[in-house]
Each structure stands twice: as C-alpha cells, then as structure tokens.
C-alpha cells in the first residue's frame, strides 16, 4: 500500500533526535504548555468551523482536535460522523492555520486520516488497553513519520500505557506524546475518571523525552472541574492540556457536561497560573537550597527510624518463629491504625496521610516477618502490596 503523503506542515521537517519532535518544537517556540482544543465529536461542518474560529480567536491553541470515530460505551449513542467529517478538518486548517488531530482505532482510520492531511493522530483510552489493536496501529503507522499521542488505558495500568508507546517506538514512530485522561475506578469519586496522578508521573519518569499532556475534560467529566484539574497539571509540570470545546456544549451529541465554549476556555486559560520551574532570584535560590538541605537531614532521620523499626520487626519475627506464633495479629493492626493517625494529628501532620503511610509500613513488616518465618527472600512491597 503506498504511504499517504503527509500534509505540508513546517513541523514535518526531518527530526534530528528523540527530543526533537512536532511537540517539543511547538513547546520550545511557545515557551508555555501546549494547548489542544476542539469538540469531543465533529457533528456538523458548521459546528466544527464555529469551534475552530472561536479557538483561533483565542490565539493560544496549538492543535485542533475532533472525534470522528467515537468509541461509545453503549451501542445506539452517537458514534461519530466518520470519514465524511475529514474534509471539515481540512477546511479548519485552511481557514485557521491550526493543525488538526483525530482519534484513530484501526489501520483504516489511519489511512483515511492521513489521506485527508490530518497532522497528528491520537490513540484513545479504549484502544490503548488492547495490545493487538495498538500493534495493528503501529504497523499501519510505520514509515509515515506522523506524530502520535497515546491516551492512558482505561484501567490504571502504567505498563499497558508504556507498552503502547514502546510498540510505536519500535515501529519507528518517534514523535510521541502521552495524554493523561484518568482511569476507571470502582470507588466513588468526584471525577469521571480518577486522575491517580502518581501513575502519570511514573510514566513521565520512564519516558522523560515524551511530552505529557493532561486531559481535564475526561478526568473531570464536569465543566467546573476543568480549572482545578488543569491547574494541578501545570503545577505538576505537565507539557500541555487537551480541553474539549463546543459552540453549544449543552446540546453536544457526546460529553455535553464537560465541554465548554471557546470563550469560556479563554476565561479558564486567563485564570490559570503558570508558575515557573525555577527562578533567577538569588534570595529564592539560596533559601530553597537551605530548606532542601534541611529536608535531606529530615529524610535521613526518617530512613534511620525505619531501619530501627524494621530491625525490631525482625527480632519479633524470630521470637514468633521460636514460639510458633502467626504473623498477622489483628489486634495489633487495629491498634496501629488507631494510634498513629492520632499521634500525627497532635503534631500537625495529616491523619489520612499517616494512615496510608502505615499501611505501607505494616505491609513491609509483614513481608519481613514472612521472610523470617519462611527462611527465604520475599519480593519487596509496592504500592499494590507485598509480593507475598
Ligand atoms: C475523546 O478524547 O473524545 C475520547 C474518546 O477520549 P478517551 O479515549 O480518553 O475516552
Ligand atoms: Mn469526549
């Protein structure tokens, strides 16, 4: 199959290194996080054009998004306009100069989108979960040089997210970005998709060269959560935001509750605080350095206290072993979880935080005791529990 010709866009110049991509060039030029905006779904040509012109007028949008093929949870919902909407996006680019991006889930989508000059593609959360689907996309994308954004999988599994990026990298797709859109959860939550920020931070540490973009629309699921989520992402040093916009959000055919008008997006952007990564103020720098050194000392004390605690645990385990006593003593567990948060509150440390910390410390204690009782090493504790 002949490779589709890529649209003439200045960022499609040959890239010279892993860190030199469509995304990083835009970021370097802008000196601010990237902004991707546009409707959840392309519904009509008029709706797409009204959104695009409204966004262009803000002067801050870098990439125009629109869903064409919509993966819906239940059949019978609006499933997108399909290929018929692609010429509308060509018109967006011609009239506003904004590059465009659509979600692709199959090789056929890739072919259609590229044949219509779409500049950037993204892989949705429901596709990232499926390595077969991701591999099929990677194969279809090989050799195209097109920039691709990968949303996190629906389930909170960083390995799947990382795996999708690796499949693309192996196919020679080096212009990559990751989009954090939150994770499905069983637990009641104020969010539509729990952000579980730690997972996105973990991805960022594994792929420091890949820009990380936050999607407050799908995390929040509600207009009033867009600003706090976007602010949090900026404070966590994200590289960009993707926010759904619609000229008449209440009547949108998909995700009506979370879309905002381009004008409202402008207000949200004006309210965001762009804090700096560092400062050239000498006073700030010397004070920050002094505080960090004091924190280093405090951290050493914490670790030394943990070492003392774990040595006591080991001694107790030997004692239990000699007396044929079980590891888990529920009364003791209850006592720890009642007393430690209480002690914390008395010295002004957050009780819930200390409760969580003691869950981990207790798991590590159990792991250590298991080692002593079994007489062989046991895998270390992770945030998901001990490798018993
Ligand atoms: C979208 O961006 O419109 C979308 C379908 O998102 P997600 O894949 O994050 O659910
Ligand atoms: Mn949506």
Describe the structure.
- It is built from 14 helices and 10 strands.
- The chain starts with 21 loop residues before the first helix and ends with a strand.
- Strands 1-2-3-4-5-6-7-8 form an 8-stranded parallel beta barrel, surrounded by 6 helices. A two-stranded antiparallel ribbon has the order 9-10.
- It has helices spanning 22-30, 45-58, 86-96, 107-115, 125-128, 131-141, 158-170, 197-206, 216-220, 226-235, 262-271, 282-323, 330-346, 351-374, and strands at 34-38, 63-65, 100-103, 120-123, 148-151, 176-180, 212-214, 240-244, 379-382, 385-387.
- With 388 residues, the chain is α/β, with parallel strands linked by helices.
- It is 49% helix and 10% strand.
- Phosphoenolpyruvate binds next to helix 5.
- Phosphoenolpyruvate binds at residues 40, 67, 124-126, 151, 181, 218.
Write the layout of secondary structure elements.
Elements: H1 22-30, E1 34-38, H2 45-58, E2 63-65, H3 86-96, E3 100-103, H4 107-115, E4 120-123, H5 125-128, H6 131-141, E5 148-151, H7 158-170, E6 176-180, H8 197-206, E7 212-214, H9 216-220, H10 226-235, E8 240-244, H11 262-271, H12 282-323, H13 330-346, H14 351-374, E9 379-382, E10 385-387
The structure holds phosphoenolpyruvate and manganese (II) ion (MN).
Residues 40, 67, 124-126, 151, 181, 218 line the site of phosphoenolpyruvate (PEP).
Q: Span from first to last CA?
A: 51 Å
Please work out how many helical segments DSSP would assign.
14
List low-confidence stretches: 1-16
Largest sheet: 8 strands, parallel, barrel
According to DSSP, the number of beta strands is 10
Give the integer mean of the pLDDT values: 91
SSE sequence, one letter per element: HEHEHEHEHHEHEHEHHEHHHHEE
Which compounds are bound in this model? phosphoenolpyruvate, manganese (II) ion
Shape: elongated
What structural category do the secondary elements indicate? alpha/beta
- Radius of gyration, in Å, reads 25 Å
- The largest beta-sheet arranges its strands as 1-2-3-4-5-6-7-8
Assess the beta-strand content as a share of residues: 5-15%
| Approximate helicity band | 40-55%
